[in-house]
Specification:
Layout lengths: L2 E4 L9 E5 L12 H12 L4 E5 L4 E6 L8 H21 L4 E4 L8 H12 L17 E4 L6 H22 L7 H15 L2 E5 L1 H6 L3 H7 L7 E7 L10 E5 L1 E5 L19 H15 L6 E10 L11 E3 L5 E3 L7 H12 L6 E6 L3 H7 L4 E5 L3 H14 L3 E3 L17 E2 L7 H10 L6 E5 L5 E2 L9 E2 L4 H12 L2
Parallel strand pairs: 1-6, 2-4, 2-5, 5-6, 9-11, 9-14, 10-11, 13-17, 14-18, 15-16
Antiparallel strand pairs: 3-4, 7-8, 8-11, 12-13, 15-18, 19-20
Helix pairs in contact: 2-3, 2-11, 3-4, 4-8, 5-8, 7-9, 8-13, 9-12, 11-13
The structure holds ligand BES and zinc ion (ZN) (2 copies).
The site of one zinc ion has 4 residues, from loops.
């Protein structure tokens, strides 16, 4: 992991990023007369991002005039994208260190650029024999002195986003439900979060029928992981509860998925990765907030006694579900976790899940589909947090009419709706298991991407971690 440290002054003749509004400021950066002339020429050609290659190092110049007029969320995203561009040059030249300056009109700009550099520099190459690792080790960040602690906060955030990406990118043979739970447990220890992993026996005695049904086709037992962070000075009396879908691999089960695209289904625990990394980020940042995270985990396979279309399942809370498609397994395991969450009398529950292809089809990877029963105040806070970290929320309608689509003739509900509104009927299914303010985040679109996009690398994106942390920060500053 790249180390971020505070550094007020740039080192001459080393990699550096300078932000400026107008060419008058160029004289502050120890550029030669020829370099200044070059930059001015580029500016006339309407280039705003200018690279000076000095052979032993690069100078990166970014004109920020049209950034600063943007709303805060877009402005930050522009700086992250600058960071991603810089990262490509750093990687190509095997640079180990870079200094990133801020600008009087935005003293935090260097933080967002650093964020972009680190996230764009991420590699998942542990299975390559010829590793070609990134050389980048250190970023020196210029910030206002009062913002020094924000560098540390950013470091924590980035570590946790990377943890989530690593988990999502890990194939199932290296990360089954048991291994996943063990890794969560060991990371929890480091983060000062308490962790209890329920094994199959315990899950059976709790009668978590949804999780057990999905697990029936698997040789690996399920796990149910409970994480809790309860600082002495918590601001909230009732906890914030996070729930994450931990399907470590989704073959579809007997309702088998086609081969094309099935490879990406190692990402089906991205919700679990986001909530685990999210609570670790909150704890490591020492936010005064009582938080619980619940992670039901299993793979979904068409094994010998796999659950079947036509089956009826008794869920943890006693309700019954007619299974009409074993590929709608996420809601089965989440339902049990959501019912389990009632015992905490939560202030609010947020669930994260790669739940439906319908959500991905509706808005692509550009945002997160959400819906739920939380107060308008909570929804607004979540949406604001989403804008700031550019994990933008799109709230779907959640009218009662959609519940009729999951009515079953023989059980309390069925596990699929009809051909329309698939993301919403999945949400309506989950709603049957809650009795508290709740928001559901369907991250099927943004969790795993097929091509890099600025600072998001191909594969797992770690979506959700930054949203959870930002929302938690806002709850604390209320
Ligand atoms: N894990 C999938 C959803 C998914 C799709 C995640 C694409 C990431 C990318 C989920 O378990 C699933 O298979 N959902 C079905 C539900 C259907 C059978 C009602 C779907 O969306 O097709
Ligand atoms: Zn599925
Ligand atoms: Zn799934």
């Amino acid at each position: 992991m790249v180390k971020l440290t505070y550094s007020e002054k740039f080192k001459p003749n080393k990699n550096a990023v300078f932000l400026f509004s107008n060419s008058g400021e160029l004289s502050n950066f120890l550029l030669s007369a020829e370099e200044i002339a070059y930059v001015e020429k580029k500016l006339k050609e309407d280039e705003k991002f200018i690279l000076i290659n000095r052979l032993s190092h690069h100078i990166f110049l970014q004109q920020i005039e049209d950034f600063e007029s943007k709303p805060e969320g877009l402005k930050r995203e522009k700086y992250r994208a600058v960071g991603a561009k810089i990262s490509h040059t750093l990687t190509a030249h095997h640079y180990e260190e870079i200094w990133i300056g801020n600008h009087p009109s935005n003293l935090a700009a260097s933080l967002y650029i650093s964020e972009g550099v680190v996230l764009a520099s991420y590699q998942f190459n542990k299975y390559k024999s010829d590793k070609k690792n990134n050389a980048l080790k250190s970023i020196l960040v210029q910030t206002e002195k009062t913002k020094k602690n924000e560098i540390e906060a950013l470091q924590i955030q980035l570590e946790e986003v990377i943890r989530a990406r690593n988990w999502v990118n890990e194939p199932v043979s290296h990360l089954d439900a048991i291994v996943f739970a063990k890794q969560i447990q060991s990371a929890a220890k480091d983060a000062g979060v308490s962790c209890e992993v329920l094994n199959k026996k315990q899950i059976e005695s709790l009668k978590m029928g949804g999780l057990l049904a999905v697990n029936k086709g698997s040789k690996t037992p399920p796990t149910f992981t409970i994480l809790e962070y309860k600082p002495a000075k918590a601001k909230n009396k009732k906890p914030l509860v996070l729930v994450g879908k931990g399907v470590v691999y989704d073959t579809g089960g007997l309702s088998l998925k086609p081969t094309a695209g099935m490879d990406t289904m190692k990402c089906d625990m991205a919700g679990a990765a986001a909530v685990a990394a999210g609570i670790f980020a909150i704890a490591k940042s020492k936010l005064p907030l009582h938080v619980v995270a619940l992670i039901p985990a299993t793979d979904n396979r068409p094994g010998e006694i796999a659950y079947t279309p036509g089956d009826v399942i008794h869920m943890f809370d006693g309700q019954t579900v007619e299974v009409l498609n074993t590929d709608a397994e996420g809601r089965m395991i989440l339902a049990d976790a959501l019912s389990y969450a009632k015992k905490y009398e939560p202030e609010i529950v947020l669930d994260f899940a790669t739940l439906t292809g319908a959500a991905a089809a509706a808005i692509g990877a550009y945002g997160i589909v959400c819906m739920g029963t939380a107060s308008e105040e909570s929804k607004t806070a979540l949406k604001n947090a989403g804008e700031l970290v550019h994990e933008r929320l799109v709230e779907f309608p959640f009218w009662d009419d959609y519940s009729t689509l999951i009515k079953s003739d023989i059980a309390d509900m069925k596990n699929i709706g009809g051909p329309v509104a698939g993301a919403i009927t999945a949400g309506k299914f989950l709603e049957k298991f809650i009795d508290y303010p709740w928001m559901h985040f369907d991250i099927a679109g943004p969790a795993f991407i097929s091509a890099a996009e600025t600072y998001k690398t191909k594969g797992g994106t770690g979506v959700g971690v930054r949203l959870i942390l930002e929302y938690a920060k806002q709850l604390c500053s209320k």
